[in-house]
Design goal:
The protein is of the alpha/beta class. It contains 26 helices and 23 strands. It has an eleven-stranded mixed sheet.
Length: 767
């Protein structure tokens, strides 16, 4: 057979094989779509996010600001991990034991952990892989960002799916250089499976908890498993996460030896100048839920996860070598899972490592899957967040997903740095693929906006995700209050320092131009979406300026007339009925008429007191001059009205005691010793003594049923009750038909440095 004949035979077989692969992918997609339609499953949506990325990025909002600012987030090698940044450096690639770059995408506070918040001793914190510690904090933040109090998830079938690759913390790579002291916690603290289990343990979750390692596709593998678990009904909520913290510099040294690092340390995705990547670290956590559950619970929907796929390259040119057919398969499978074609996606957040071979293969895969039948006026936009952060390894897929979710929500595709001039595959594709060297508005297509995210694993496992813009804004638009009822802003923390940090974070949040939420909405959200910790403060005010002044006082640890602060006690409540003297009753305008429960209480009491006041309503009794008898009746009625108002706020007192004549008769009625009419008769008769008070029981938290004549008085009383530890029904007290949840800053973790540093290796001098 001639060479030409052999070539023709090879092409014939290759074409037949390709057609067979396409047939399998199409068949798989049809089966998945049919199964999904048959079961009537809800789509899975993203409702919360928490993260840590290089450049001091500690919130999704900070990530978005960095992307819009086109920030390069790389920094010098860390000096707090036992590394020798000076001795490690050699500008010449290929030198054993040396690194040809001095920078990477590092988390400045990777060793910082709020051990006290999670109940860890300093020894246990130091013996826990910083990857696991970061996940604890970012998982908490992801739940809070969705408007959910994390403590309410205890006992729920919430799943945890973590993508993580061991990074040699405390010399665990092969057991070398393990510290001599404090190793009791390292056995579990460096166990990859403990990463997911630790989150489930901390929050009391009963769903599946899995840690997966597929190298750089780990977090997309975790997301794929989390979505499948939700779709099957195995979970009600799911946390999907990816994390990387480089405890040792091995990954830099090895890739420098191979000459795989960019000479300037900058990743240049899909650029003709691409000469290698650079390494980074980070943590990203998503909270996922089925759409119908999210809408029923009022949770914010940030994006819809339309489709996911994970697939293996199989036998190829090498285990860690990029594989075009494998990439095309996983992209096509994810599209089939979503019931979409390549032309239905506007943007791909690509893997984009900046290596010449890898980027060419990925560009060709995108061209094959997303470029077919694509209208020329709607090219596929693509880019890579690695140009900002570096390659965050096991967290890289999560970095891409967060960037895509934010871009969909804001309607803007951020720039990909260092991407010009484009590599040849992109330059000759006829405009079907279009890099984004500068931010552009999201293309207007008349259909839902969609993005895809790719992550490619060094062991041949690839992941692909299809995202769609949320059907409506995640949060209601800001605006003036619909309910003018004054409410306190509640803050709490595990430590006084964290309480001050909570106030500072809320102040910064409210100073943002887009954060003009109504005071009542802020109060409602603080009350019902945040945990109640022992150190507490409540801020009340007549207007926004007074609220902010109170927050500043809390942040600075200073007193303020608008603040109640302290440490909550534990125990049952004693309601103390102690009204003002009859001679100094509050005026009509000083009463909490804005509370429906108070208005209803007064309406009920007006009928009861009428026989003792010549038919005059309670409001008239407050207008001087009033007789001594009228004053006693008015004081009694006000005490009872306030007691009923407290009951409407969820207070169920274990005991009721009275002070003064009206207070003792009110307490007798509230205890059930007398009917309302009987108590009023006894009060106005004068010849009858109030019933004796029950003996005081130890450990009761006092709560006064008393009218305070200060402005916003009941708001301050409500806040003081929270601060003292009185159990409240916060939904009842702070809710209402028009109450809205609004976005708030997450917990202000106040950690300290915990790190087991390996002995610095001796680096031989180079001759």
């Amino acid at each position: 057979m001639t060479d030409e004949a052999r070539l023709r035979e090879y092409l014939r077989k290759a074409t037949a094989a390709l057609q067979e692969e396409r047939h399998k992918v199409t068949e798989l997609g049809d089966r998945l779509a049919a199964a999904e339609r048959a079961r009537g499953l809800d789509p899975v949506v993203v409702i919360g996010m928490g993260c840590r990325w290089p450049g001091g990025i500690d919130t999704p909002e900070a990530l978005w600001r960095a992307l819009l600012a086109e920030r390069d987030c790389l920094s010098e090698f860390p000096a707090d991990r036992g590394w020798d940044p000076v001795g490690l450096y050699d500008p010449e690639p290929g030198v054993p034991g040396r690194c040809s770059v001095r920078e990477g995408g590092f988390l400045a506070e990777a060793g910082t952990f709020d051990a006290e918040f999670f109940g860890y001793t300093p020894q246990e914190a130091a013996g826990t892989d910083p990857q696991q510690r970061l996940l604890l904090e970012t998982a908490w933040e992801a739940v809070e960002s969705a408007g959910i109090d994390p403590t309410t998830l205890a006992g729920s079938p919430t799943g945890v799916f973590v993508g993580l690759t061991p990074q040699g913390y405390a010399g665990t790579g092969g057991g070398r250089d393990r510290p001599e002291e404090g190793t009791d916690h390292l056995a579990v603290g460096t166990l990859p499976s403990a990463a997911s289990g630790r989150i489930a343990y901390a929050l009391g979750l009963h769903g599946p908890a899995l840690t997966v390692d597929t190298a750089c596709s780990s977090s997309l593998s975790a997301l794929h498993l989390a979505r499948r678990s939700l779709l099957s009904g195995e979970c009600s909520l799911a946390l999907a996460a990816g994390v990387t913290v480089m405890a040792v510099p091995d990954v830099f040294l090895e890739h420098s030896r191979l000459g795989a690092l960019a000479r300037d340390g900058r990743t240049k995705p899909f650029s003709a100048r691409a000469d290698g990547g650079n390494w980074a670290e980070g943590a990203g956590v998503l909270l996922l839920e089925r759409l119908s559950d999210a809408e029923r619970s009022g949770h914010p929907v940030l994006a819809v996860v339309r489709g996911t796929a994970v697939g293996q390259n199989g036998t190829s040119n090498g285990l860690a070598v990029p594989n075009g057919p494998g990439q095309r398969r996983v992209m096509a499978t994810a599209l089939a899972d979503a019931g979409l074609s390549g032309a239905d996606v506007d943007y791909v957040e690509a893997h984009g490592t900046g290596t010449p071979l890898g980027d060419v293969m990925e560009a060709e895969a995108m061209l094959a899957v997303y470029g077919r039948a694509r209208p020329p006026e709607r090219p596929l936009l693509f880019g890579s967040v690695k140009s900002n952060l570096g390659h965050t390894q096991s967290a890289s897929g999560m970095a891409g997903v967060m960037k895509a979710v934010l871009a969909l929500g804001h309607g803007t595709v951020p720039a990909t740095l260092n991407s010009e001039p484009p590599l040849e595959t992109v330059a000759r594709c006829g405009g079907v693929l279009r890099p984004v060297p500068a931010a552009v508005p999201w293309p207007a297509t008349g259909r839902p906006e969609r993005a895809a995210v790719t992550a490619l694993g060094a062991g041949g496992t690839n992941g692909h995700v299809i995202l769609e813009r949320a059907p409506r804004p995640a949060w209601p638009p800001s605006g003036a209050a619909r309910d003018i009822r004054p409410l306190p802003w509640l803050l709490s923390a595990r430590t006084p320092a964290a309480l001050r940090g909570q106030a500072r974070k809320l102040l910064r949040h409210l100073e943002a131009p887009a954060a003009q939420w109504a005071d009542a909405d802020i109060a409602h959200s603080l009350a019902v979406t945040r945990s109640a910790f022992p150190h507490r403060a409540a801020v009340a005010g007549g207007d926004r300026g007074q609220y902010l002044a109170g927050l500043r006082a809390v942040a600075d640890g200073l007193p303020s007339p608008w603040v109640r602060s302290g440490t909550a006690a534990t125990g049952r409540t004693v309601l103390v009925c102690a009204g003002p003297p009859a001679s100094v009753l509050p005026s009509y305008g000083q009463l909490p008429w804005e509370w429906a429960a108070f208005r209803d209480a007064v309406a009920d009491l007006d009928e009861a007191v009428a026989p003792y006041t010549d038919g005059r309503p309670l409001a008239k009794l407050l207008e001087p001059p009033a007789s001594e008898s009228d004053g006693l009746v008015a004081a009694f009625a006000l005490i009872v009205a306030y007691a009923w108002l407290w009951q409407a706020c969820g207070v169920s007192p274990a005991a009721v005691r009275g002070e003064g004549l009206p207070g003792r008769w009110a307490a007798a009625h509230l205890r059930g010793d007398h009917t309302l009419g009987g108590a009023l008769a006894g009060l106005t008769d004068g010849a009858q003594d109030p019933p004796s008070e029950p003996s005081a029981a130890p450990g009761l938290i006092p709560l006064a049923a008393v009218c305070d004549t200060q402005p916003a008085s009941f708001a301050l009383q409500l806040g003081a009750a929270f601060v003292s530890g009185v159990p409240l029904d916060r939904e009842a007290a702070f809710g209402g038909a028009e109450a809205r949840r609004v976005p708030l800053p997450t917990y202000a973790f106040t950690g300290t440095h915990h790190w087991y540093a390996q002995p610095t290796p001796t680096i031989p001098e180079q001759r």
